[in-house]
Amino acid sequence: MSQNLPTVLVVDDEVRSQEALRRTLEEDFTVFTAASAEAAAAIMAREWVQIVLCDQRMPGASGVQFLAEVREKWPDAVRIIISGYTDSEDIIAGINEAGIYQYLLKPWQPEQLLLTLNGAAEMYRLQSDNQRLSLDMKVAEPVLRERVAGKRAAVAQRFAVSALLRAPNSPMNAVCTLVEKVARLDVPVLLTGESGTGKELLARGLHLASPRAEAAFITENCGAVPDQLLESELFGYKRGAFTGAYEDRVGLFKQADGGSIFLDEIGETTPAFQVKLLRVLQEGEVRPVGAPRPLPVDARVVTATNRDLEADMQAGRFREDLFYRLAAITVWVPPLRERAMDIPLIASAFAAELRSVGGEAFAPLDKEVLACLCAYRWPGNVRELRNEILRMAALSDDARLRASDLSPRVLRAAEADDEAELNLLAGMDGDLKARLETLEARIVKESLIRHRWNKTRAAKELGLSRVGLRNKLSRYGLEKS
């Protein structure tokens, strides 16, 4: 008998019936036999039995009585009983007590018997797997809890307001101080400022600095979703509420219960939707689409917009009552051009996150690259700066990011960083010759940077000889050290 086969104990006092069962099962099972409940109990005590197949009518204890004993002493064993039609009522009465998996009626058919016992073997395997997994989970739970706590601490440290990259004299210092103060108060906060300035990052930092830090932080971009979909996303819906609603959906407000929800681009919502959002803030409850009654919800609401909501209120595009509900505290985030001192820190951090084609880290950004980056006004703010660093990494031939890999618009801005030159070009001072020379110097320097200060290529592009280019470099003081 193979030890890999499921084990079954056949209990029957009739030798012929016992042998018939053994012959039918022995090809697929390891079979033990017993003629009485006492003998069967002795086998159970010394052998690993997975399935007990017992006849109902036996001398002494009945099959149901014996299986009830098996359930008490060996609860993992799957219990099956065989009986005649006349015993059905007794068995049905004792099924719950004995925990019988299934019972077969005599005369049994081999196919039916094998099908039943194979199902019992699968049930035993699933029970064993479940017990093993439960034990593994109990053993692993402290380790998993420690890992989760470590990851949560790492996330909190990474996205904390205090970890936001900024210079000692940056305007962001006052913003971060304000955010850390209001984080302690459980009031709605409105973040305003241009797109790409990092409002979502501040919202996450605000959540992590609040008493709700252990709960969920949920985000939604209101400007990217139509009103009808936005309502079902935020408030949830019941099955059958509309075409395609095949099951209940928990809304984002309910998912954020006990935590915070960040609604970006709140100024893009319509007045009709704003009425529904106002009710959530006033009543502290949401009504899923198609639900008969509202559900209570406790989530801190943080919103953001790049629009002038006060102007929108005057124009009737934004509800005044909703504005004052959302803007208990208003935090304005300055654009990147007003905190140029932060650009080297942010750009260097982006570059440090990247790897070159060879898998090595990029070298620190040199002064020429940083000077070009600081001279540009960054209408797309931090998001545009990150894309510029990604562009440089994509165009780089090695592990160094060069000014020649910058976008033409950034290079052109780098040539306009001298206020005197800008004044000359704007006609505020200087004659025509001086203005033309200033413009010529900018064009020459831009060409040199684009060609990585290769004078031969720059001269060819500008239609100059090397001697002519050298003279212009000397005249305009453009010789690179």
UniProtKB/TrEMBL annotation:
Residue numbers of 4-aspartylphosphate PTMs: D55
Domain Response regulatory: 7-121
GO biological process: phosphorelay signal transduction system; regulation of DNA-templated transcription
Highest taxon of the lineage: Bacteria
This protein's record includes keyword Nucleotide-binding: yes
A GO term, aspect molecular function: sequence-specific DNA binding
Pfam families in UniProt: AAA_lid_14, HTH_8, Response_reg, Sigma54_activat
KW Ribosomal protein (keyword) present: no
Keywords attached to this entry: ATP-binding, DNA-binding, Nucleotide-binding, Phosphoprotein, Transcription, Transcription regulation
Residues covered by the Sigma-54 factor interaction domain: 165-394
Designated name of the protein: Sigma-54-dependent Fis family transcriptional regulator
